[in-house]
Amino acid sequence: MHSVAIIGASGYAGQETLDRVVGHPGFEVVALGSDSLAGSGASALDVRLNGSLPRFVPNEEALASGADLTFLCLGHERAAALEPSADGVVVDLSGAHRLADPALYPAWYGFEHPRPEELAGWTYGLPEVSPPVGRLVANPGCYATAAILALAPLAGAIESGSVVVDAKSGVSGAGRELKPGSHAGFVLENVSPYRVGSHQHAPEIAGALGYPVCFVPHLLPVRRGLIATCYAQIDGDARDLIEAAYAGSAAVRVLPEGVAPELSRVQHTDGAEIGVYDERATARPVIVCALDNLGKGAAGQAVQNANLALDLDETLGLKLTGVPV
Amino acid sequence: MHSVAIIGASGYAGQETLDRVVGHPGFEVVALGSDSLAGSGASALDVRLNGSLPRFVPNEEALASGADLTFLCLGHERAAALEPSADGVVVDLSGAHRLADPALYPAWYGFEHPRPEELAGWTYGLPEVSPPVGRLVANPGCYATAAILALAPLAGAIESGSVVVDAKSGVSGAGRELKPGSHAGFVLENVSPYRVGSHQHAPEIAGALGYPVCFVPHLLPVRRGLIATCYAQIDGDARDLIEAAYAGSAAVRVLPEGVAPELSRVQHTDGAEIGVYDERATARPVIVCALDNLGKGAAGQAVQNANLALDLDETLGLKLTGVPV
Amino acid sequence: MHSVAIIGASGYAGQETLDRVVGHPGFEVVALGSDSLAGSGASALDVRLNGSLPRFVPNEEALASGADLTFLCLGHERAAALEPSADGVVVDLSGAHRLADPALYPAWYGFEHPRPEELAGWTYGLPEVSPPVGRLVANPGCYATAAILALAPLAGAIESGSVVVDAKSGVSGAGRELKPGSHAGFVLENVSPYRVGSHQHAPEIAGALGYPVCFVPHLLPVRRGLIATCYAQIDGDARDLIEAAYAGSAAVRVLPEGVAPELSRVQHTDGAEIGVYDERATARPVIVCALDNLGKGAAGQAVQNANLALDLDETLGLKLTGVPV
Amino acid sequence: MHSVAIIGASGYAGQETLDRVVGHPGFEVVALGSDSLAGSGASALDVRLNGSLPRFVPNEEALASGADLTFLCLGHERAAALEPSADGVVVDLSGAHRLADPALYPAWYGFEHPRPEELAGWTYGLPEVSPPVGRLVANPGCYATAAILALAPLAGAIESGSVVVDAKSGVSGAGRELKPGSHAGFVLENVSPYRVGSHQHAPEIAGALGYPVCFVPHLLPVRRGLIATCYAQIDGDARDLIEAAYAGSAAVRVLPEGVAPELSRVQHTDGAEIGVYDERATARPVIVCALDNLGKGAAGQAVQNANLALDLDETLGLKLTGVPV
Is the ipTM of this complex over 0.85? Predict the structure, then answer.
């Protein structure tokens, strides 16, 4: 049994991570951190949580719990400022340790990185593309995961200046915090692009792929799920490259021709699905990746990374089965 | 007063056209055609319709009514087979007369055009780009309207091989007909690309712009509204070109920097709004056009075309004002 | 032309009122009050608003504008504290002047009414049931409007202890303010009862009907629209009574048997529709009223009340026509 | 290992049952019946289904498979006509065997029951209220499950003439079949009552409770989930009675005061949650039960019934844990 601490357990990413940890056969929660809920029992977060979990403690206290595995589910700037624990595996679900170059933080995240010298100690863990190495794992962003899963297999064949990633996400991607863009009176019966040219996942995608992409996110009137439609000019057969990349993958399903990716099949799961199309008017492949922004795009991938970092079966505790309608 | 016949009045496009015609100060309905509702009063379609409208008659009978203005709101193949009335303005909301080259019909619409020699007699009427000439007007498709409004002003400056149109539409775009893709159990909490590389609006867009585009439509879980996110490499300033094109336009609003297009502001209207962005990672303009697929994308534009064909004020009967939340 | 001031113009009720006023042939906006937007042009609220409107001023300044007609679109407690202008018609969209008995305010609104002696000067204006008298009009709540329209015609025939009002509203009913219950991550794919037994519209309904009802509101995952399903044991024929009450009404449509009320037909309108059913298992009438919480449930009714108070045609500026799908 | 046949596996109830069976440690699928998919592999239903399942066969053939356990997921009339297999447990998810009195079928289901003499051999299995006895189990309807769970504990204390059940369901409750009421263009941004006074779950509820209730269902714009708001006059303390009834229940959670039932917490689960309120204006308890119409309202309860009929742990294969946001 590995002891687990969740820091920032009361946000969306924290709660979803808790959901996976509670269902994991090799994990045991020893500390639940939340500054707002400190002192309350776990049921203060959700009535489904019963008495077997520890009470919430302040995040700093949870950080110091000495757990074998710590999930950081905090805001970017807060996570960047933390002094990581002396040992144990740490998976950071924020963007605080995703960009190798600290100089990128002011422009894309709006703050100077407070501990730039430590960035080199973290690895960007996207299991199917760049499995984690070492005990400090930066967990990828939801959009970045979808774009990289779609495009990484085309490396070498791609005409990089041509790449467009048009992405659409459900509202849980923006977190539990109250803001005008998450108000249901804005979200329902609406769709809108946002942060065009300035979303912090753009440099993350570029860092992983090795070239910049034109990335435009849109907000969807759905609770959870994300779809990235990727356009590229390549020299080669996109389907062959992608099928080869994910043959045998437990979490990524390449769809046969004629089956379109759907949010509804990946919601509440930790897998992703990819459709590959030949668009006939301009003879360009279109690669579409769908995943759950809170699953493969956050908590599910965090647990997958933790499993790998702890030398466990990659799929333990993940939601990868089932065929609900 | 111009007499009006609506053929296929019981579908979504027909009902929305009726909505505009009933509110038009210069139009009077003289024939409502519907094969399924023939013999019933107008309230059989919608309880809000009271006794002042004529009863439904079979479509053939409505076609023969001798109205000054006829709206064809039928399926593509059915509309293609019609012998247009001897005189009067005819606005066809289907795709039956949008493609100049009859050879394109089998590949994109799935049928041989039954009256290929007549295609030359129709004009493709997109008021802001190619106002209708003559009495036979092919009304543009919803996706095509959005893509053309976004891209036509860039003609000349554009690197045509680079153009991607990633479009998203509400479910009413697929009509009132029952099909698996319109079942709410499929649509809700879901988003999916469809007809990638084979949607019939692709050749329509190419015909209007003069070059092929990579066009991918997606189905959204919204009742009405459509957004087209357009990517292009151009030589020039996209915002300048687009603002110049629509200065003074009654129906197209170019948004100032910092304001994103939103479905919610164009739903239930006959206008469109366009946002222009400089995406900084790849220095590519992104042009986003939002409209109501049943308004500017169908019935509203049909009435706008009819007004022009009849030498009336272009905006009569259109929904272009109001600021509901 | 009547001069109009809107106080609290940047909330949902304020913006919808502005929408109606801008389209009203006899009204002219002379003051737009908003403490948060004071100093900005009208387009700061919505890009669709152009230069012909005055700039926003602080609410106190707008209140002192001396307009012929003032709409108060503020929070309950704020509105209760205002000293009404010396003359001119005032329509208050908040609950500050709806309850005749000041003693009810602490229990149902959570504050002592600061000007209890003035409550008697206001009339509760529900045009079809209790048209406004005098220049100070308390505009009914959205739930209350639906419940009263459904039940008022049964007065006398009703067994009052039996009345249940099960109501469901879209999220705009809770206003533009950010709160957990309006977060789209909570609202989407969710339905939940709230404020059971403690919603402030309960005493308002009781005050208008003359007996208490069991009132339970629920939050729906829709942007706008409200439906109240009302259950009562009566001695008489519910349909006859209701049809008689609204024969000739411009804003209330009693549906024929076999047609169910639908949110979609009343959204974006200032009308209401009522369905009457005989439930066969317990021989009890069920009366269902649907309306738009921002239309007949707020801004539309406010303008209807203003028209009556100013001796104008009741329907001027209202949205009562159209048959969109 | 128990061998399992699913008849009508390609509908919503069939697919959800398959989902539970595939995840059940003691069940093995030996026959998948579907007349429309006969001859195809399981992936024809859903791309997530891989090669380990048998191919679809015609329903008659699946029925004759001699499985230890058979789930009937057919339409009411079709299921009523079947000759049940000679042995093995059969759980019927349709309404064909729910009403004890065959005379009720013409009025509520629209057909004469073809095998009235066999109804007495089936038991109505609602595990928490009336656990199944024998090998033929009629699985309750979704609405009925919610209403009975809310009201059964009040038996004896209730004033039966007073009971109102106002219920709201997501669209999957209507099945995968194409019909106007399930078209997303009708469902989205809409809510509407339907089958008021004539829904077939009314006599089912009455049969289980022993008295008729006023039952009104409404269609919600959500994919899955159902909420029943129940009103009753009782002599006693509703909360005490309900908490006593479900103390120790694995599938039914009685919420503490101050926590409202929510669809979102029960979606994709096989549990139910119940909130109990004292409504202060009329001093009447309000009991609200939320469940997933495809989980506790269909497939989950079917598996729960099967477990009981086979003397297995009631919760095997059920979805009763997890705290996703």
Answer: yes
**Chain-chain contact of C183 with A182 (C-beta, under 8 angstroms):** yes
Q: Which amino acid is at D87?
A: D
Contact D315, D301 (CB under 8 A): no
pLDDT tens digits for range B142-154 = 999 999 999 999 9
* Nearest chain B residue to C44, by CA: B259
Quick count: other Cβ atoms within 10 Å of Cβ B248?
Answer: 6
CB pairs under 8 A, 24+ apart, for B120-126? Answer: B122/B92, B122/B97, B124/B98, B124/B100, B124/B207, B124/B208, B125/B91, B125/B301, B125/B305, B125/B308, B125/B309, B126/B208, B126/B301
**Residues of chain D with C-beta less than 8 angstroms from the C-beta of B12:** 185
Element housing B147 (H / E):
helix B142-151
With CA atoms as reference, the chain A residue closest to B162 would be A162
Any CB–CB contact under 8 A between B179 and chain D?
yes
d(CA D114, CA B13) in angstroms, rounded, equals: 45
Q: Is residue D174 part of a domain?
A: yes
| Residue whose token pair is 């028209």 | C307
Domain count across chain B: 2
Q: Do B46 and C223 touch (CB under 8 A)?
A: no
Q: Which run of H or E residues covers position C31?
A: strand C27-33
CB contact under 8 A, B15 and C256: no
Q: Do C268 and B323 touch (CB under 8 A)?
A: no
Q: Compute the average pLDDT of residues B160-175.
A: 95
Chains with 3+ CB–CB pairs under 8 A to D are A, B, C
Q: What is the share, in percent, of chain D residues with pLDDT greater than 70? A: 99
Alpha-carbon C303 to chain mean position: 11
The residues of B annotated as belonging to the active site are 142
Asked whether residue A174 is domain-assigned, the answer is: yes
Statement to judge: residues A162 and A284 lie in one domain? yes
**For the whole model, what pTM was predicted?**
0.97
User: Pairing mode, if any, of strands D226-234 and D158-169?
Assistant: antiparallel
Maximal C-alpha separation, chain C: 61
Chain C environment of A15 (Cβ under 8 Å): none
Q: Is C183 found in the same domain as C111?
A: no
Mean pLDDT throughout A61-71?
96
The whole-angstrom separation of Cα D295 and Cα D198 is 24
Q: Domain containing D156 — which CATH number?
A: 3.30.360.10
Amino acid type, A281: A
| B33 DSSP β-pair partners | B7, B57
The answer to whether the beta carbons of residues D11 and D175 sit under 8 Å apart is yes
Asked if residue C162 and residue C25 are part of one domain, the reply reads no
- B268 contacts on D by Cβ (under 8 Å): none
Residue C63 structural domain? 2-140+297-309
Distance, CA of D159 to CA of C281 (rounded, Å):
15
For residues B57 and A182, give the distance between their C-alpha atoms in angstroms, rounded to a whole number.
48
Nearest CA in chain C to A222: C188
CATH for A36 = 3.40.50.720
Residues of D with a catalytic annotation lie at 142
Q: What are the backbone angles phi and psi of residue B119, rounded to the nearest 5°? A: -55, -35
Nearest to C178 among A180, A188, A222 (CB): A180
Residues A171 and A85 in one domain: no
DSSP A136: E
Q: What is the DSSP letter of A25?
A: T
From C146's Cα to the closest Cα of chain D, the distance in A is 15
